[in-house]
Specification:
By secondary structure, the chain is an alpha/beta fold. 38% of the residues lie in helices and 8% in strands. The protein has a 5-stranded parallel β-sheet with strand order 4-5-3-6-7, sandwiched between helices. Strands 2-1-8 form a 3-stranded antiparallel β-sheet. The longest helix has 26 residues.
């Protein structure tokens, strides 16, 4: 029997509606008493679907008008899920993510990088401005961290990674809620704690930085929801070290960071600080990835995960909404209102910001002066007249670049999205 009150729950594919038309999108049959689909479905097994076109969030703001009339809920189906693949460095996450996305028709978002932060849409790399910046404002990316993890800019490096992870996670939610297409992430916001703790244990971060990070993290997690499914690829540290050598990236192979002690700590923290706390809320699949398992077995396991939500359990409770208005508010939070969330994240800490994460007034003035003399960095993307941009009259323009200058989250957007 379908309740006259709409209860949206991604944990059963999307929602229960009091209309047969909308409900039929979530069921194996077109009768209102049918069993709801609670399992991810491979592309080859999906039946033809007549759904509203995706909302074009990449070029159009989600306005009050859209909030009232957009058929958002009718886009959702059993594959409207957020899947995360995690594991130690070099274990094989990228290839795994691509295979899962291909099998289920999901969007794969490659992991954020510092190039996405430092290189703008005009191809200018602001790392070229380093000689003009004060020390704490100079760029510090992954190769530099792996070369010198004790650098005082390491704190900013890790905090920036956290914010980039948040930026991507919000983009994943935005895409899923706007199109109905599920998303696969290579690591995520929740697993960032593993690396921060390991860096603190290794002496790369101070206790004050760690305290500040945890406060910011707690605030940030209030704006998002835990994944539907986490797939963890496990492998012994010695296997990981060999895989790092096989990748052949000099700054990784020669780095003292990837020591046996550090990688062992990462492995322990993954299981204690990430997988264990999320186990009661999120479905977990864990594989020994010392040697790649038969991938058909993995696909079958994913297909057998039951995403049905039970009111008396925590599992997937994040994805239960009171009504459709709650869903739309959540979508707005991860779209046009994201800058407000970021402001709250960056300004709500009750702990004084450590020196490693802050700039003095003089440093800020120096940075502003450098950017004011850089044509492609004078104004935000779309409004730099000196480089041929002029969005003065496009009031509906919505930029997805909250943290990074050139995010690559949507490079695969059109692959399976109809």
């Amino acid at each position: 029997m379908i309740s006259s009150t709409m209860v949206l729950t991604f944990s059963v594919g999307a929602c229960r509606l009091n209309t047969i038309v909308s409900f039929a999108r979530l069921c194996k049959t077109k009768t209102p008493n049918a069993t709801q689909v609670a399992f991810l479905t491979r592309l080859v097994r999906q039946e033809p679907r007549n759904k509203p076109a995706p909302f074009p969030y990449w070029r159009k703001k989600y306005t009050i008008f859209n909030e009232l009339f957009d058929p958002m809920l009718q886009r959702f189906d059993e594959n409207t899920r957020l899947v995360v693949v995690d594991g130690l460095p070099a274990v094989g996450k990228s290839k795994f993510c691509e295979k899962v996305a291909d099998e289920f028709g999901l969007l794969y978002m490659p992991p954020p990088t510092h190039d996405q932060y430092y290189v703008n849409v005009h191809g200018f790399d602001i790392r070229e401005l380093d000689p003009q910046f004060p020390f704490f404002a100079k760029s510090f990316d992954l190769p530099r961290f792996l070369e010198n993890p004790h650098d005082k800019r390491t704190a900013h490096f890790q905090m920036l990674y956290f914010l980039m992870r948040y930026d991507q996670y919000a983009n994943a939610l935005l895409h899923m809620l706007s199109t109905g297409q599920g998303v696969v992430l290579n690591r995520c916001l929740y697993s960032d704690i593993v690396f921060t703790e390991a860096m603190k244990n290794a002496g790369y971060l101070t206790e004050n930085v760690m305290k500040y990070y945890m406060i910011v993290r707690d605030i940030t997690l209030e704006f998002v929801k835990r994944p539907h499914l986490i797939i963890y690829l496990d492998a012994p540290v010695e296997v990981i070290k060999e895989k790092i050598k096989q990748k052949g990236l000099t700054y990784e192979v020669n780095s003292k960071v990837f020591s046996t002690e550090y990688l062992n700590d990462l492995e322990r923290l993954y299981k204690e600080k990430y997988l264990a706390p999320l186990e009661s809320h999120t479905h977990l699949l864990i594989y020994d990835w010392s040697k790649e398992t038969n991938f058909s077995t993995v696909i079958e396991d994913i297909e057998n995960v039951n995403f049905e939500h039970h009111a008396d359990k925590k599992k997937l409770h994040d994805w239960v909404f009171i009504n459709k208005d709650e869903v739309k508010k959540f979508r707005l939070l991860n779209g046009p209102c994201r800058q407000d969330a970021l402001s709250q994240i960056c300004q709500s800490s009750t702990l004084e910001c450590p020196r490693e994460l802050s700039w003095t007034a003089d440093e800020l003035m120096q940075v502003d002066e450098v950017f004011s003399n850089c044509a492609s960095e004078k104004n935000r993307e779309g409004y730099n007249i000196e480089v041929g941009e002029n969005n003065t009259w496009t009031w509906s323009h919505f930029s997805l670049m909250s943290i990074r200058r050139t995010p690559q989250d949507f490079v695969n957007r059109d692959k399976y999205m109809s």
